[in-house]
Amino acid sequence: MPTVSKNIFWSTLTSALQLYTGSVVFIVLAKLMDLEEFGILSFGFSLAALVAIAADFGFSLMIMKDYPQQKIGEHNSYISNSLMAKLVLSLGSAVLFFIYLFLFYDGDWLLVGCIYTFIAIAQSFVSYLQALLRVENRFHKYTETVGIYAFVVTLCVLAYWQFEMQLLQLVWYLLACRMVQLGWTLYLNRVTLKGFSFNKKKIAKLLGNSWSFGLHMLLGIFYFMVDTQIISLYLGAEEVALYQSVFRIILILLMFSDIVSSVLLPYLSFKYHKQEDISQHVSKIFLYLLIIGCSLFLLFTSFDSEILEILYTPEYVSAAILVLPFSIVIILRTVSSLLGNILTISNKQAYRVLTVGVSLIVSLVLNLILIPKYGIESAAWVSVIVHLVLFGMYFYYSKQEIPAIGLFEVNTLLVLSASILLYFAVRYGTAGNLALILGCAVVWLAFVFWIMKRNGNLAFLQQILREKGVG
């Protein structure tokens, strides 16, 4: 049986490929396209994220909890009826988003949005089947599905570069790439999908059970992505392009927390199901995630303009004003992922729904008020406020489930304090001196090593990595 460390390896490779297809590819396209076209393409990508979550409605998360609990011989029935339920959700979601597009957009905005809606529907089925591969402990096959997509997308970008295709041609090719991935993912799950069965009562039950998972995922992606839709309505394509240029980098950096979360959710669920005390696990893992988040924060804020200039064209450097707030979001989102997982495994998914619902309301209200007046910088700072609300509510509800967890311990406070001091040292004390910045980096690495040696933090991490994954 694969160990947790092996699963982390495959998840790391998978996340690297997803990083490539979801961010690196778009960074390359930003260099090849003018600001206006890249803004419209970014709008379509943002819309697809919303559609995909609506079409999936939490089924990809729900299978992680339900599939291991199915009796022998009932797995195929569960999968086939889940896919039928997802088909109903996909059709409904497509209709709603087509109405939205026809009401508010026209021209290339409308056409790109419609094609991306189809891309998102296919993506939602891919995500569900990938979740099935993970829950069966077939992380290597999960990686394979992402690798296939990365390969065909690369061919697509090369074709766009060599043959100077129009924007709409590019988007059609991206749809073809997603369909290739869907076909390959279906092939890898062919054994599990045998013995198709149709049960109306089971479909209705699955739809009924999915509401908390679905609303959580739907509201969660809306509070994270709705700002781009509002920017597209009030400010136009160029502002969307600038905003998304930094957002792409944030998605790259968030890969690290996604790697840990994708492995730890089934791992912690297994521990919790066996009624083991996971309070120490949560406290330690929170510290590890905080160190990762703060490290990424310091990296991005220390080289903000340089990173933007290297990755994009010079006209994108003006987006550097977004780096500080988005870097704070990295920390908050990284540590919040663990607390959200606690609520999922303890069957308190309704609290996640409530939390992201409140977060979405805060996001909508503040963005609608501030974006038309203050532009994209206000949208970035609204994201900080929204994630503070998210973290606060997650912590409150998680503490009710596991009262013994201690998140704000001495080590945690030391990491936060060191991060703040080094940020101000780099920002206001070095005046761009590379040697001093590198000196601060050495200090941070030495500090992290010291923290990991304290209280057996490193030994505990090594123990977790040696444990067996769930099967």
- Mean pLDDT, all residues: 80
**Which class do the helix and strand fractions yield?**
mainly alpha
Strand % is under 5%
The ordered string of helix (H) and strand (E) elements is: HHHHHHHHHHHHHHHHHHH
Count the helices. How many?
A: 19
Summarize the structure.
By secondary structure, the protein is an all-alpha fold. Helix content is 83%, strand content 0%.
Properties at a glance:
single chain; 19 helices; mainly alpha; 0% strand; 83% helix; 471 residues
Structure description:
Helix 1 packs antiparallel against helix 11 (255-273) and helix 14 packs antiparallel against helix 15 (349-374). The radius of gyration is 22 Å and the shape is globular. It has helices spanning 4-32, 35-56, 59-66, 75-104, 107-135, 139-163, 167-188, 200-209, 211-234, 237-253, 255-273, 279-302, 304-311, 323-345, 349-374, 376-401, 410-429, 434-453, 457-466. It is mainly alpha-helical.
